[in-house]
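Table S5 (text form). Sequence records supplied for joint modeling of the four-component complex.
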Amino acid sequence: MRKTIQLGPGLQIGGDSFVVMAGPCAVETRELLDQVADAVAAAGAGVLRGGAFKPRTSPKSFQGLGLPGLELLAAASARTGLPVVTEVMDPRDVEMVARHAAILQVGSRNMQNFPLLREVGRQPKPVLLKRGAAATLDELLHAADYIRQEGNEHVMLCERGVRGFDPSTRYLLDLAAVPALRGRTDLPIVVDPSHGTGRRELVAPMAKAALVAGADALLIEVHGAPERALCDGDQALRPADFAVLTAELRRLVALCGRRWSRPETTGRVASVPGPHVPGSLDDEVVAP
Amino acid sequence: MRKTIQLGPGLQIGGDSFVVMAGPCAVETRELLDQVADAVAAAGAGVLRGGAFKPRTSPKSFQGLGLPGLELLAAASARTGLPVVTEVMDPRDVEMVARHAAILQVGSRNMQNFPLLREVGRQPKPVLLKRGAAATLDELLHAADYIRQEGNEHVMLCERGVRGFDPSTRYLLDLAAVPALRGRTDLPIVVDPSHGTGRRELVAPMAKAALVAGADALLIEVHGAPERALCDGDQALRPADFAVLTAELRRLVALCGRRWSRPETTGRVASVPGPHVPGSLDDEVVAP
Amino acid sequence: MRKTIQLGPGLQIGGDSFVVMAGPCAVETRELLDQVADAVAAAGAGVLRGGAFKPRTSPKSFQGLGLPGLELLAAASARTGLPVVTEVMDPRDVEMVARHAAILQVGSRNMQNFPLLREVGRQPKPVLLKRGAAATLDELLHAADYIRQEGNEHVMLCERGVRGFDPSTRYLLDLAAVPALRGRTDLPIVVDPSHGTGRRELVAPMAKAALVAGADALLIEVHGAPERALCDGDQALRPADFAVLTAELRRLVALCGRRWSRPETTGRVASVPGPHVPGSLDDEVVAP
Amino acid sequence: MRKTIQLGPGLQIGGDSFVVMAGPCAVETRELLDQVADAVAAAGAGVLRGGAFKPRTSPKSFQGLGLPGLELLAAASARTGLPVVTEVMDPRDVEMVARHAAILQVGSRNMQNFPLLREVGRQPKPVLLKRGAAATLDELLHAADYIRQEGNEHVMLCERGVRGFDPSTRYLLDLAAVPALRGRTDLPIVVDPSHGTGRRELVAPMAKAALVAGADALLIEVHGAPERALCDGDQALRPADFAVLTAELRRLVALCGRRWSRPETTGRVASVPGPHVPGSLDDEVVAP
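The corresponding structure-token record, covering 1152 residues in total, follows.
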């Protein structure tokens, strides 16, 4: 029996559940965040993602809003009923981030930041650990051991693309890592097709492929106006495209004998005014 | 409208069709080949694969049966009604191989063997062109241009894994290449999850993921006794596991709005004596 | 004119100087450290390297001695006259490490640990920044910008091997990064042939090649008993082999028109009892 | 004792000899070829390189002059006294190429073109076998075995860069392959810093590094007007820069205790009219 991480009534990651985590790459403004949060909740996402502390290649790029960003995420979580996953980069910030978020993300660049791993291992919130761009599965599992050794067993492993040689994608999404990891660990496995490809038009096919390959959850970037995003706009889905994707995913979830998992209390946002999109949770789902 | 390659009544590759090509890595004996050919035909494969000329890393490894292997393949094709795909390595062998096979395969190591590409471009049979282990999609498309420039437009592109750094898989299957190629070419796209992972237990999940990601066909190794195979036994499915996989694939094919394609005349082999396996074509398929 | 970093009388890194930094991978005991420190000083090293905080793939591996290791390094530095370079992994340890060491090393796994980069940028000691195993030169230079933006311009860039696909070496040492970086920055460039190859017998040829390719300094692991080392013994040179290497390097330094740089006060250790080794600084060096 | 390949009076590859093979990427015209051939002979090259059959990524790129190119190479060889190395791509061309050239090159894309390897193994001329862009050293050595198994023991192994992820160089030159191969085989080892970096300004530092790392020979592209070259002009040295490089290499050859090897009869071209360049063989060389 595979490990499950309980995140509240109706929402669990692992086991036979399937969860979509979605939201903007970075928290930019309250308006943009609320718009996306409402949209992904309406489309059936189970967790809201968003970055307040952003690891950016250049120090001159937008570095995230920091604490005010965390507060906006907490407000959006209260509004939508979706728990929040957000990245923590500094061991000194772990306590603060853990106060505002339901899941702490350790990013790809920090997969072997051992002081950070130990610190997230010492607090009680689940941890989403991203595979480094040049990390073997062995190294990823050992990194998870750093967290677990401190007492926190609620670790999810996230494949988000390794460094490849072909400039036609940003990273090389290693989907075979999903079944390979399932054979070696009972920790839930997450796939990030947004970073893993870096190109909007590849996100939906790889999201569906990840589910079929055995992933327990997806991490997907959604932005109301990707062309104006402060961070990684090329890989963000528009809300309408995200809704189409979740509709397709839900049919595959049924076929794969899994259960679409989201917070029980999220139903209310389905009444947020807006156009009816195919795949919103008001539609009836019939398993094949 | 995407390009289709017609291979006989009922069987086409590309468009809305989905085809499974299956068989042993190498032709070893008539008995082993016939056993596998019957099994893959019964399970719904549309094309029989098998190697008579084997590109092996070491000159001391089994190099294939050569012409007698081609003759065994032709006999198995006549027996099952499945057309044959087999590799050609030497430009001087193209005519001979084309006489015995329906599809000529150019292997990964020969993706930029330009004299060979030109030679298969000058004969009329379709060509399955495998991506080199370090080839970009640009280079793969340019290699296809060498074939097309000689007049042969019936080229399929095959993703079979690129060189990766993690020894936990044999190659790194680049599934995002499937949607990325679909955006750039109308040639049919094939995925080889057997070579692409090198591990039997990863073949089924990646086969299903490839279909969902948009592949038009799969190339899958099946062997009656993988532990005694002369070549790549670790990645060969057993016939019973292959039948389970095709049953799962057929449900996904229906969900994806595609059509399971195989030769019309193959139905007769369904009467070959043997245990009933789930997913054999005697089962009724109901689309969701 | 290329940037130089002054480390005391006689010792500078960059410009026309060439410096060898050597010592054990990890500080294990006072005896082992002193033995190696004396040996590398006698052979002409300019800086003593040694790890007190070790980033290890598995949490069950030896993690370094921590603060007592720093104190042993400081004592060995006083004994030999060689300044110390040692790794810091945690932003909360930067001040402590900076009190004990002359150069702070940021390891490969932390190249994009931005809080750590900012913290070492706010203290006055020079920083040796190692390239990540999947980092482009662009990303390495941007990581250096994080340090420089905080006011610390004394940054050295270290090539230590990127992730490759061939198990015959531990990493793939990208020596062309040396001239490529020289064309883009005036920061001193260091090469670590020990981690970059992972195999003792490849260290000397790649050390010499690095010098000829334009490196300003080398980082070399030396251990008195590599077969018993707690960390990376396979890549450590024995003291006698290190002395042979420095002798060869000194002839190349002369040929390349550079200057062998080490602390003026280190001469005294040349009188440490022991066998005369070719290349010890008592030998006269004649430029060609 | 390492294997040597004798190429005529004064010229051998392997053992304590060091040879520079140089010339244009592709043979374009008699005038351009003769100009470069005279220049590289005057600067001390031991072998003339030039391509008549060019493996180009796109079928629309210049494919080489073919047989007329071979004839121009043979004429330039007679003129300068330098034996010629040139690529053969098609097993049907082996006999023709072997009539015109002293060394047959098997290119990177054909390292595992086994019919071609067997064919060059059945003729008597030495073979320069280039490592594939994703080939391990094991695979390179096995490819050499295909040639040797046919009776031709005169094989040189050439490192020319593997596929890397950093666009700042064309390939990733794996110099550590040189000492790693020396530990496993006695075949001569060649390095191609031109293809291995793809950038003119990196060729000289990597050429010198290759020598110091233990290479027996270099393969360097030289072109009289790189900006107008039909092929790979970005990586070609100008004749004057090549002469500076050979002068530097000769000093390193002396320091490394090796012998600069070129045909005895080549001296006469030193009288070809032209400016005196530093490093031409008229200069006296004094070992350090």
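Note: Residues 239-255 of chain B form the longest helix (17 residues).
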